[in-house]
Design goal:
mainly alpha; elongated
Length: 186
Amino acid sequence: MATHAVHERPTRRRIRFDEHLPVDHRLNTIYRIGAGLIGLFLLVFGILGVIHHIGFFDTGGDTVTGLNTNGTLSVLSICVGLLLFVGMVIGGNFASTLNMTLGVLFILSGFLNLGLLDTPHNFLAFKIQNVLFSFVIGIALMTFGMYGRVGSALPHDNPYWRARHPDAVTPEKPEGKQIPSGGSGG
């Protein structure tokens, strides 16, 4: 009878990042600043577009702060700006994940609208400066969201590094208690 060696696979647990960042961690400030600054700019851009009474699906050359806009883009900018403000208020991993997700969406929007330039389907009235702005905002949001979360040289006290390397984390000794040194005891 043949015997089969049973090899145990190391158990890989799924990392839930929302469990590993303390609320008062210094990374929280980076995530909040990123969401707040970009959310503020989008909110101002959207409000200025709405105030100018630009047509909702107008594809004319109406500009606000150097970017082409219409009513749809203005309302969309207000909604995304408010969403980023919610991320700023909540902070932590929610803000980080929100920044990364919206960053990817901004980059995808830039590519989509680049393909729609000078076509009748350009219902957001994008021009090339809007496309470039979308790329820049997308990269900025992704940078703010990924800061301290991904990379090959994260410090060992980083909560994300610790979550990915649970075996390498040394347990902390409780305060006030001495750990026996293993010498000759009496």
